[in-house]
Amino acid sequence: MTHQTNSRIEALRDMAPEARLDRVADAAGLSLHDKLALAGQGALPLDLANGMIENVVGLFDMPLGVAANFTVNGKDYLVPMAVEEPSVVAAASYMARLARPYGGFQASSTLPLMRAQVQVLGVADPEGARHRLLAAADELMALANSRDKVLVGLGGGCKDIEVHLFRDTPVGPMVVLHLIVDVRDAMGANTVNTMAELIAPKVEQIASGTVRLRILSNLADRRLTRARVELPAEALSLDGLNGADVARGVVEACALAIVDPYRAATHNKGIMNGIDPVVIATGNDWRAIEAGAHAFAARDGRYTALTRWEIGAGGALVGTIELPLALGLVGGATRTHPAAQAALKLLNVETANELCQVVASVGLAQNLAALRALATDGIQKGHMKLHARNIAILAGATGPDIDRVAREIVAQGDISVDTAKAVLSGA
Ligand code: MEV
């Protein structure tokens, strides 16, 4: 039987990192090996790192936190997040905790369909070439599928062909063939790039042109994940604020991001604050996720928000997110990096789509945290509290002194290393 994680862990925030890891590893049923990998000490041997990229000189550490309280489609998840920004993990956990009594997040995904593009230049009759290529779709798909028997055996492989025409480019007309490939549990870049290169000579022949580029598109708009959360207004009534007012504030904040690219960029950055850390912790390609998310946000010609917040029937706050997520469980660093493997075990996801659904939910939670704060107190209050902990550490505080010093410098209204040092030395 697969392990059932309970993602609600009391006072996780207040524990020391070692105790926290013990608690999280227990909750997720992790082996000692995975626990050590998450602890990070020696998780990535230099030899392995040296094989991953070029000119390796060392390793670069980042904090790995765990967001608690997540429930997605009725299943609990402890979410690994590799991130350097304070507030992110706390905010995700907090919003997940608010949503938890109301069923948490509901999420769904399309099939994991990636796109690859084959660019054809010098075609005399672009429209005729489009027709010839589409007529040969079965032959082209069979050729694309002729190498990767494993993928095809798993139900994946090339499923469709599209042909796009650009009549007016700086170098004349262009025919661009798209391969639509079900990549199953892989991120899929290698798979689709190999297919695009494989069919290129045949495409050249059919189109009577010259093939130049053969590469995936990071605008993975056929590989979408959607998540939704619904909170009664009273769940948002915090610190004496009226829940209905907070809900309205969130909707109004989102409205600006929908219409104004200046705000949308920041709004979406806040969403990616939740998404990227999970993508990184699981060894996935966060540049691909970023590229896909922002291109999708601009798909209608104007850059807009990736989420929507509405007041639903009975006054509930309803949040939704939809974005391309090309995430894999197999291949790349997900397989080679021991901490990424352990992070995937902590998450306990069985398919890449399940991973995408958790990731989209974290993005939505992060967005709610930001909008709730922005629509009420502003973000600096919470931010500064966490920032103060970092300053306390920089000033030399350890153990219980960290929180004591942080509290004191916040109270004094001077979050600086000098003040923290003075508090620490009892001056
Ligand atoms: C900061 O990293 C992210 C926010 O700016 C996001 C937002 O404004 O929605 C708080």
UniProtKB/TrEMBL annotation:
<comment type="similarity">
    <text>Belongs to the HMG-CoA reductase family.</text>
</comment>
<dbReference type="InterPro" id="IPR009029">
    <property type="entry name" value="HMG_CoA_Rdtase_sub-bd_dom_sf"/>
</dbReference>
<keyword id="KW-0520">NAD</keyword>
<dbReference type="GO" id="GO:0140643">
    <property type="term" value="F:hydroxymethylglutaryl-CoA reductase (NADH) activity"/>
</dbReference>
<dbReference type="Pfam" id="PF00368">
    <property type="entry name" value="HMG-CoA_red"/>
</dbReference>
<protein>
    <recommendedName>
        <fullName>3-hydroxy-3-methylglutaryl coenzyme A reductase</fullName>
        <ecNumber>1.1.1.88</ecNumber>
    </recommendedName>
</protein>
<dbReference type="InterPro" id="IPR004553">
    <property type="entry name" value="HMG_CoA_Rdtase_bac-typ"/>
</dbReference>
<dbReference type="GO" id="GO:0015936">
    <property type="term" value="P:coenzyme A metabolic process"/>
</dbReference>
<dbReference type="InterPro" id="IPR023076">
    <property type="entry name" value="HMG_CoA_Rdtase_CS"/>
</dbReference>
<comment type="pathway">
    <text>Metabolic intermediate metabolism; (R)-mevalonate degradation; (S)-3-hydroxy-3-methylglutaryl-CoA from (R)-mevalonate: step 1/1.</text>
</comment>
<keyword id="KW-0560">Oxidoreductase</keyword>
<dbReference type="GO" id="GO:0004420">
    <property type="term" value="F:hydroxymethylglutaryl-CoA reductase (NADPH) activity"/>
</dbReference>
<dbReference type="InterPro" id="IPR002202">
    <property type="entry name" value="HMG_CoA_Rdtase"/>
</dbReference>
<dbReference type="InterPro" id="IPR023074">
    <property type="entry name" value="HMG_CoA_Rdtase_cat_sf"/>
</dbReference>
<dbReference type="InterPro" id="IPR009023">
    <property type="entry name" value="HMG_CoA_Rdtase_NAD(P)-bd_sf"/>
</dbReference>
